[in-house]
Amino acid sequence: MASGADAAAAGVAALGISGGEWAEACPPLRRNLHLLASDEVELAKMLLNERQMHLFEHWPEPGVDDDKKRGFFDQVRRLNSSYPGGLVSYIQNAKKLLADSKAGKNPYDGFTPSVPSGEVLTFGNDNFVSLEAAGVKEARNAAFVLVAGGLGERLGYKGIKVALPRETTTGKCFLQHYIESILSLQEASCKMVGDGCHTKIPFVIMTSDDTNALTIKLLESNSYFGMEPSQVKILKQEKVACLADNDARLALDPNDKYKIQTKPHGHGDVHSLLYSSGLLEQWKSEERKWVLFFQDTNGLLFNVPVCKLCYLLAIPSALGVSATKGYNVNSLAVPRKAKEAIGGITKLTHVDGRTMVINVEYNQLDPLLRATGHPDGDANCETGYSPYPGNINQLILELGPYIEELKKTHGAISEFVNPKYTDSTKTAFKSSTRLECMMQDYPKTLPPSAKVGFTVMDTWLAYAPVKNNPEDAAKVPKGNPYHSATSGEMAIYRANSLILRKAGAQIADPVVDTFNEQEVEVWPRITWSPRWGLTFKDIKEKVRGNSSISQRSALVINGRNIFLEGLLLNGTLIVNAVDEAEVKFTGPVQNKGWTIQHVDYKDTSEKEEIRIRGFKFEKVEQLEVNYTEPGKHSLSA
Fold this sequence. Notes:
By secondary structure, the chain is of the alpha/beta class. 31% of the residues lie in helices and 23% in strands. Belongs to the USP family.
């Protein structure tokens, strides 16, 4: 029987390269060729063709670290298979982008910006309610995709971001809120259609090496938060090779000379993962029409009207816009102040006639406008906001055109590179860099015939991302959004308070307080499960009479048929009811309630998820009522 080394040597000989002449330029590799399987020899040949000899220069004689040498090719094989076009394409793309970066080439040369067309919604008006209904009906034909590849380290939290409590009144994490919202939307959509509809809405989660195992553990340990496991698909994103210099030489890991250093490629990989997974064709065969993308810590994302925070109340109305306007691409957006640090959705027209509607980063939009005949650059218009709405990275794509486009691109998204140079000569990097891509750049390759638009929601309703740690948030200039766990939770209470106020309840004005050196409005701590208030129409039907809630109050609603009919709340009320129970609350409910205690983020005696907020609740007194039996119930003074 031949040894493993003999078999490998035979494989090399079979390729007609037993002499290894092609490896003459790299003696360390040539000496070790007989260790490699035939596919590994081909990978080595590819690397040398791409001027990557340095990867092998340190390789010792055969017999030393042979397993690590083979392990090196295991990694190369993964990097080659996970990138559209393989490592050759990656290296060639890198060379071009690095050359453009060194030359200072403007990616928008030849383009003139203008304001694109889209839909601006006013929460709660007849048009909004009509679009909500259209969107709920369409939801059964949709699939949801969550981009959740990040840890919470930037927030000061060691776990995965989707495991963080969305708010601490109930302690429900972001992932639980998203799943419960999708399930409520699924049920409402089928109920609207009737005819025995039992459609299950697919839910895809894109993870990374950092988050994959923890995400699966969170799902499995919580029975998928009520969703059928078959509805959930996990797609793991691979990292890409780092680049050491302007020649696109791949960087070796400083801690392991047999590994190529890797870093995340960006959330744009979600498109290639969906394409290669076969899910898009499966959804097409199921006659689905829409794919909705969102990111991992916008607490408003699925709130009754919207949010990265409340996005679900936004989802029905925005999906309604896509359906009624016939958008192939619909970007959710918020009003944006000129020069605010959020990208602007812009129509770009090239001198050759090409057009596209895409996100332009805020630090590129102002100089682009100034260079194309707008002396004031990115300036507010008569509305008090920039005419270029703020992109919040929530996308609704029409499935059919999306599949056709990905057949051409295989999901490859326009990339960029952002090296940090040691000096103005731009000849060396401070540290390795890599190519990156963004989910929202998908429209860059679309033909001019593609219908690309946007839907603008009020900021309080749709956008409250949680991404900054307490120290960074405290440095944000006064008046600008903190985008922290503190501001994110308070934004949920504000949104819910304003929604109930719009529905007819009297909600007390907030007080201003400071947590972790962030000055925020503190509204009544109001929260509800998605099955109580999926749309504004749902909520308005359940708020009757002259209900009022004081500023110091907390209200938690868990149940479908709970009605506020003249409730006068001054304290804390928690209501839990089975779906078959109809519960009416009238009259006063008063108790000592929950008080807010300040917490220093440096206080290691508190949990991380509390420290990053800067506050916790002291549960002094509350009224908690549970209705476990069907029928009509009431609670009154």
